[in-house]
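Section: Multi-chain targets

For targets with more than one molecule, the full set of components is provided together so that the structure can be written out for the assembly as a whole rather than chain by chain. Components appear in the order listed by the source. The example entry contains two components.
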Amino acid sequence: MNGFMQRFNYLFRSTKGLALVAIAMISLVSAVFGMLSGPMAEWGISDVIIRTLGMRMVPAEREGRIIMLYHSIAMAVVALEVYFITDLVKMKNHQQGSINAIVTVGYLSSMIFGLWFAYFGHNYVFHGLFIFGQSLMFFGGILLAVALWPWNKEYYMDDPSYSRTKKGIDLERVAFFIMAAAMLGSALFGAVPGSNFGNGFETFLAEDVIRMPEKNTLMLAVIGHLHIMLTLIAVAAALIVGRWVDFKGIWHKLAMPMMLVGTFIITIGVWMVVPYEFIAHYIIYGGSTLILLAGLFLLIFTWNKLIIERIAELGIEKASIGQKIAALLHDPLKFGATWQMLFMNFTTSFIGIYFAVKLDEIIRKWPAREERVELTGHWHVLSAIIATILLFYFADIAGLKGKARKWFGWLAIIFSDVAFAATTVLYIKRLIVSEAAQQPLVDAVMVFIEIGLGTLLVVLGLFMFWRLTDLFKKDGLWKAEMAEPGREGSQ
Amino acid sequence: MKHKYLLLILIMASVGCVPLTQDMELPLILDPGVDPDSWALVPAGEFLMGQFNHEIMVDYEYEIMITDVTNQQYSNYLNQAIGEGYVKIDGDQVLGYYPGDEFHGYRHEEEITAGDWLHMPINDLDLRLAFDGETFTVLEGYENHPMVVVTWFGAKAYCEYYGWHLPSEIEWEKAARGADGRPFPWGNEIVGGNANFYASRDPFEEFSGKQGNTTPVGFYNGSTYSGYKTLDSKSPYGVYDMAGNVEQWTADIYENQHYRYLRGGSKQTYAYNLRVWTRNNAGPYYFSPSIGFRCVRDK
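Its structure, encoded as tokens over all components, is:
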């Protein structure tokens, strides 16, 4: 019993354990529910899963099921980010403990009962528990925002190498705080229309109403909600990576004001979609430009740091270009997290901008379903890239070292990027091939997608197997991690 | 070993450049036994429309074609209509006059002006018709496949030539699902034997890849073709192919947009797009190997 409690404490009271559980849950849900669509449906695997698990798939409820599935996964990802933030950013131990406990119960309740309700018959008690879980997440978010309050003198920044005001207010902490506060407001932005579902407001997927000339207020709120939540999850991921690599110096001083102002502007811009849709887009462009620039500065800092530290470690006085590149690529986890941020631009940002610029000229000449494919492909890739970034961070704190670290890192980078690039080709295919001639291209890119994602999942599976089987060892890594000193402060 | 991988990558990249379709022979030349010249009566009365089953009253009865318009039907029409000057050939296009839409200058709205508009391109690879400079004929084996590569203008002109019209969305959906709110024309679930959709494993799909080919109209009538068994998948009013095979143009023109709406899903879409309420849309000048139409006439 003592052993069980020790492991329970590890899994539900330590950052690494909580993160391990969240990633395991996300992996499990992705593995099971990912088999219901795409190639898995084509191969008939979805039918087997549905029959085996006894799922109840009413055709008219597809959109509602998908919304609950997205929310279930999103809650776990947000919880994961919360664990990392409460570990990385200075706050009281009791704050960390209560925030983590609340979001853990929140996402688990939301995920388990939400999926149960959506896929296994409609027990409305479970629907209530799904909403209860999301409410707990919101409450945990309020506590997080309180804990992150940057105007508490206790958390003023003394070190001049970090971005701060003249008074000493830590601007990185401000960025974390604004992100958390923006996420709370944006959650409400979705909760209001969500609470009207089935109450005169009909469930829909945003990609299905893209060409509707006049969307009602609640529809605009839903569309704004999903965009800003994913944006804020990405902002949080960038801030976490910044703490991970100890982002500081001139690039930090430039980036943090941009990040916090950009986050504020883009959030306001998205909220303004409801009353002033047309002007709102220009505000959003302004905010996203600032955030992208902040991300670029983080990347420059990180790559420079990776090179300098590795060159110093090797004792090289004057490194050649080749040695610098080798140094940059030495640690695939830290390099990978920032590389994925760069790669994201090629698979999503630049293509998104191109599609926005050419919307009437090209995209709107296609059937709506083609535009829908582009939109869903776009954000699936974006979400998956964010997931890999968080995964790299977890792999680092989980103690992946030596050759395993290199194999894990490089396989994850290469094969995820192969999959993301192939997905990008798939969703922009109409730019390069006609409907009549597309099938060979579709079949070819599907091979790359399957190989890429398949390998990524195998690598993730092996990693998870290593960490989960470690729990069965009497003196495994988990025990050592439990014995580690408490929460580390950020700076 | 490295060379093997390189070779594999090159093969996979090169298959992406191989065009498909027109040159290939059909695996089966079939007559499913459903007469494309026949009509089904849709009685007046209420029905449940859309995903959320809104009660809609249609206070008139009408008839709808039991199948999509076939290549043979469209070819016959073109040969008559061109001779009468109803439509004309201009270069490699069939054109016809359209009086234009009311234009409001709304965001993303495109002006559809009065003038000649494309009905059908003549040289498109996926067109199942051939033109010798005077007469249209149907490529062998495609006679009773649905007419594709036809714009909304071309579909509308066909129906109006015979004194009929394209179905409104309401007329289309009522004909597809009857009055009981079912999600598919034949009932509540979909399997491969019900309709031609993406990866539905029909015999034509096996032949030309998962994009598949169109199936002959009325193919899913419960018959077995060379060992391939279909389910009788007509709607409650006896209408075939209201889900899958080709999407169908509908008549409605909505304010502040130039898009025309397509119903029914196609050989190119996943099964969930075959739910009767699912909509797609495109400009009226758009054509595709997955888009066809059928007509409605007043009773």
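Helices of chain B lie at 2-15, 71-83, 152-161, 169-177, 203-208.
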